[in-house]
Design a protein that fits this description.
heterodimer; A: Rossmann fold; seven-stranded parallel beta sheet; 39% helix; disordered N terminus; B: alpha/beta; 8 strands
Chain lengths: 248, 264
């Protein structure tokens, strides 16, 4: 493939980078960049070129401290790649949680982790990227935001729809400054998060045209493309990766 | 394995509309990563039976054919079959976008029926015919299809006010044809999925060196409207085609490459 991966010697941040999709993305980017991952709990796996710094993305001070930590360790003001991946989803007894079962506290927590966290990171990182006149932001949304979801509750769906809105708004705001902002809307990807729901594999064989759940590396490959020079003209787009489940 | 055997085992792509612009860029990119490319275009030369002596320029085997017809499409697959055992990628890129004599948008009253039919035959029917005819060859290699759509297929043509979105010079027939290509992508993706043949679409916005032939005030106006303040290059589209061709979990996707001009 003729792409020039622009991630050589760059500084990349992946929120929720300790497991699942986030970890796969971090491992891929670490092949060519210094990657800083964050989460509330330490990772079970890292790789050369990756460093974990504790951060609860819902906490404004922890986000500031995390970015200060990145700056100190990288010995650089640069942030070249920001992947807003941190997210949570709740189930109820292995099934979709219904609106009457979602407490206000659960709703607000979900929105804070999945959407506000992305806002807080973007708010700090965008000025750095503007100074650099370059940067790549990829926000992880969800196919459920396209279709109203099957397994996810309305809290999760709303937060992921918000991610698409944040992506588009930021893409419009950051016109002509050398920063690309895009989103990925994964379908059902085989991670710990979805193993809380029953019968996923049977569902995939029945409902997904390609007959399988996605794997984290399917998303990591997309991120790699979007962070490369090959995708220099992709801006404000939401990329579906769902085995054909949702076509939009 | 002898030379003929090695040749037959190479990865193979068909690219329609390969003589210029986006099609030429896609063809060149595929050749550069080791594909044998059959480049199909009406403009390679006269409509003669040149298959057995197809000229190869820069690694692209030229196949002159009029893909608006069944016979023309069959000619493409005959050319494939004469040299290769299967097909890895079918890129349905060929299209026309008729303009007014001064290169402005044709309004609907200036579009004659035969021109409408010709646009549909080249832009849409060729996708249907080639996808159907190529299927057995794609099956042999779990190949995939990439259709070139257009942002205009999603938003439709503009009107007389050039400052109102979308200030495009594409006519309604071109826009409708590209909407059909996008929708056909979804249908084909579902129908072919059980055989693991993926079908996706790449929808460019405004492309420098593409069909729009943008220059002067039109070019400046478009640049002002597009968030990235520039038009795409054919290479941007080629990069996306190459990328999509390698993704095992993406099918039925319409990838927009438009610099943020339309965000979907």
């Amino acid at each position: 493939m003729i792409t020039t991966t622009s991630s050589d010697n760059k500084v990349a941040i992946v929120t929720g980078g300790t497991r699942g999709i986030g970890l796969a993305i971090a491992l891929r980017l670490a092949q060519n960049a210094k990657v800083y991952i964050c989460s509330r709990n330490p990772p079970k796996t890292t790789a050369p070129g990756m460093r974990w710094i504790r951060c609860d993305v819902t906490n404004e001070k922890e986000v500031d401290d995390f970015l200060d930590g990145v700056k100190a360790h990288a010995a650089s003001d640069r942030v070249d790649i920001l992947i807003n991946n941190a997210g949570i989803a709740t189930s109820r007894d292995g099934r979709r949680i219904t609106i009457d079962e979602i407490s206000l506290e659960e709703w607000e927590h979900c929105l804070k982790v999945n959407l506000t966290g992305a806002f807080l990171l973007c708010r700090r990182v965008v000025p750095l990227m503007k100074k650099q006149l370059s940067g790549k932001i990829v926000n992880i949304s969800s196919a459920s935001a396209r279709c109203g979801g099957v397994f996810a509750g309305v809290d999760y769906i709303s937060s992921k729809a918000g991610i698409i809105g944040l992506t588009k708004g930021l893409a419009f705001e950051l016109r002509c400054v050398g920063i690309n902002v895009n989103a990925i809307a994964p379908g059902r990807i085989d991670t710990e998060m979805i193993r809380n729901f029953d019968s996923m594999n049977d569902w995939a064989k029945r409902e997904v045209p390609l007959g399988r759940l996605g794997v984290p590396d399917d998303i990591a490959g997309l991120v790699d493309f979007l962070c490369s020079d090959a995708a220099a003209y992709v801006h404000g787009a939401t990329f579906d990766c769902n085995g054909g489940w949702i076509m939009s | 394995m002898d030379d003929i055997g090695r040749e037959m085992m190479k990865k193979v792509a068909i690219v329609t509309g390969a003589a210029r612009g986006i099609g030429a860029a896609i063809s060149t990119h595929l050749v550069a990563v080791g594909y044998q490319v059959l480049g199909v275009d009406l403009d390679w030369g006269q409509l003669a039976n040149q298959l057995s002596t197809g000229t190869k320029i820069d690694g692209i085997l030229q196949v002159p054919a009029d893909i608006s017809t069944q016979v023309g499409c069959e000619k493409v697959l005959t050319a494939l079959k004469s040299k290769f055992s299967g097909l890895d990628i079918l890129v349905n890129n060929a299209a026309i976008s008729p303009k007014a004599p001064d290169n402005s948008r044709k309004n609907i009253f200036d579009i004659e029926s035969d021109e409408w039919d010709r646009v549909m035959a080249i832009n849409v029917r060729s996708v249907f015919l080639l996808s159907k005819l190529a299927f057995p060859f794609l099956l042999k290699r779990h190949g995939n299809i990439i259709n070139i759509g257009s942002m205009m297929g999603v938003v439709g043509a503009g009107n007389e006010d050039e400052n109102v979105f979308p200030s495009s010079i594409s006519g309604a027939h071109y826009c409708a044809s590209k909407a059909a290509v996008i929708n056909l992508t979804y249908s084909l993706a579902r129908e072919f999925s059980s055989k693991k043949i993926r079908v996706n679409c790449v929808s460019p916005g405004a492309v420098l060196g593409g069909m729009g032939n943008f220059s002067g005030p039109t070019l400046s106006r478009l640049q002002g409207q597009i968030p990235l303040h520039e038009l795409a290059l054919p290479e941007h589209i080629a990069n996306a085609v190459l990328f999509l061709s390698e993704q095992s979990h993406i099918t039925g996707h319409n990838l927009h490459i438009n610099g943020g001009w339309l965000m979907r």
